[in-house]
Amino acid sequence: MNNVRMPGVLVVLAASVAIIGCGKKEEPKAAAPAPAPAAAAPAPAPKPEMVVKIGHVAPLTGPIAHLGKDNENGARLAVDDANAKKIEIDGKVIKFELLGEDDQADPKTGTVVAQKLVDAKVVGVVGHLNSGTTIPASAIYNQSGLPQISPSATNPKYTQQGFNTAFRVMANDIQQGSVIGTYAAKDMGAKKFAIIDDRTAYGQGLADEVEKAAKAAGATVVAREFTNDKATDFKAILTKIKAKNPDVIFLGGMDAVGGPMLKQIKELGIKAKFTTGDGGCSPELIKLAGAASEGVICSQAGLPPEKLPNGQKFLEDFTKKYGQIQIYSPYSYDAVMVLVDAMKRANSVDPVKYLPEVGKTAYDGVTGKIEFDEKGDIKNGAITVFEIKDGKLATLKSEGGTAASK
């Protein structure tokens, strides 16, 4: 009996095993581990920064403070533009900083602030505005080996001292005096000149050159008078000049003197044509003299703003930020950029190393091509003659100047 039942038990057991096997769930396979992310490349270390100080000097107080501020603003715009370029010199990103000083158009103050800039460790100086402050200050910069570029000092003596540190980016008074003196004698037909100067290095120096040019062109100087750069009453010397009946009165001086002088010329009924140099060839002269400025003939050592070879962007940027250009701000801008360009070429901000490069400059500035002769004067500096018409400076003629490369 037992033999009959055994196969059935085996079948049942086998079936049970099969059922249990079929009902077993398959374990899910573990997901393959995600590959470890690649290590990010380390960010390059930022290049070290270095602050480099450039000095600027002009009269920021007194009767010609408007001209001094114009110069300083031109230099500040150049510093801003240079910093925007993140210029690298000797492996460092350079941050330029402008240290502005006020020399009050006074020669003694000029030497004091010059030494102050030397002590502040500036690497170069733009300025001064006036020849009378530029010349004495230049000896201090030369002794310290600091490059000095004036945007507006036009007396020839500045670059005739034999200093390898002295440069200027506009024409000097020999060039300017020759142009305005010859223009008055030949183009205007003036035969008799009365010449007034303010006894400054600039005013007297320019007046001397105008006198030479007038005489060379066949004219006669019937009066030579002088005043000072702080004077406002000129009736005594103008009365003496009226008696000489000149065709032209030339003033070697600034607009702060020229403005009131023009009003007094009109009050005294003097018919002579009034001429002056760059120090009086400004919007401020028109503002000070009003209607008495109409018909004035004046010169500037440079090209008119609208004719600056690379000047349109400068004009737009400057007027947007600072307002109307007076006279020299484009040249102040270029003076800063010439220093920066020399540092880049020398790959150094050390005056000892980059000073030789300043003399080798061939820079396309907003005012034109800038190159220096062996004295530090700009080569082929431009001179422009203007006439004041309807309260504005209207260009009559330009001579010299070198266009920048395209």
TrEMBL record:
* Entry keyword annotation includes Transport: yes
Key words, A-Z: Amino-acid transport, Signal, Transport
Note the Pfam families from the entry. Peripla_BP_6
| Keyword Protease recorded | no
Q: Any idea where the Leucine-binding protein domain is? A: 52-391
SUPFAM superfamilies under this entry?
Answer: Periplasmic binding protein-like I (SSF53822)
Q: Which GO terms describe its biological process?
A: amino acid transport
Specify the domain of life of the species encoding this protein.
Bacteria
Q: Which family does it belong to?
A: Belongs to the leucine-binding protein family.
Name of the protein in its database record:
Leucine-, isoleucine-, valine-, threonine-, and alanine-binding protein
Ranked from the top, the taxonomy reads:
Bacteria, Pseudomonadati, Pseudomonadota, Betaproteobacteria, Candidatus Accumulibacter
